[in-house]
Amino acid sequence: MVLMASNEQEDHTASTGMPAGGRGETRFPPFDPVNFTPMLIWLSLSFGSLYLLMSKIALPGVESILHTRAHKIANDIAEANAFRARSEEAATAHDKTIADAKAKALALAQETHARLNAETEENRLALDAELNARLATSETQILAMKAKAMGNVEAIASEAAAAIVLRITGKPAGQEAQEAIARAIATIKA
């Protein structure tokens, strides 16, 4: 039975790594020097395969994506710069068109102002000439009417003076009274 117990103890130690009594000293497998060689082999195989996988499959894909994005960004920036240059040219052309339109409008306004001033001056001069002609005609008519009225005034004044003398004195006015009346009327005309 001793032999059998010894076999059981070895089987237990081989399967659990612990002596059968449960009181033996155990080591953590990664720190056990017996396991260093297989762990280093697996570590180098894992990192080697990971390196191959990354260098041959993943990194070239990422590189092509980055290259494509950089190319697209560069093209977009170049296109944006071209659009900006075209828009600046269009803005400059628009500003020039506005300046030309303002200059034409100002020239047209000045031309119209000068033409209207000339027409107004021409109309004023024509109106002045017409008014001066009417004024001269009116003055001639007034002078003619005044002369006619003064001629009538002389006759009326002579008749009125003779009638007054006749009424006051009862006798008709003589030649001497007629001459005094004519002198008085002459002084009034002057």
Can you characterise this structure?
Helix content is 86%, strand content 0%. With 190 residues, it is mainly alpha-helical. Helix 2 (36-169) packs antiparallel against helix 3 (175-189). The protein is rod-shaped, with a radius of gyration of 69 Å.
Helix content: over 70%
Strand content: under 5%
How many helices?
3
Q: How would a textbook summarize the main sheet?
A: none
Tell me the series of helices and strands, N- to C-terminal: HHH
Shape: rod-shaped
The count of β-strands is: 0
Stretches where pLDDT is under 50 for at least 5 consecutive residues are: 1-5
Task: Specify the structural class.
Answer: mainly alpha
What is the radius of gyration computed over CA atoms, rounded to a whole number of angstroms?
A: 69 Å
The overall pLDDT average reads: 83
Give the CA-CA distance, first to last residue.
Answer: 188 Å
Brief overview, please?
The protein is mainly α.
Task: Please outline the helices and strands.
Elements: H1 2-16, H2 36-169, H3 175-189
Key attributes of the depicted protein:
single chain, 190 residues, 3 helices, 86% helix, rod-shaped
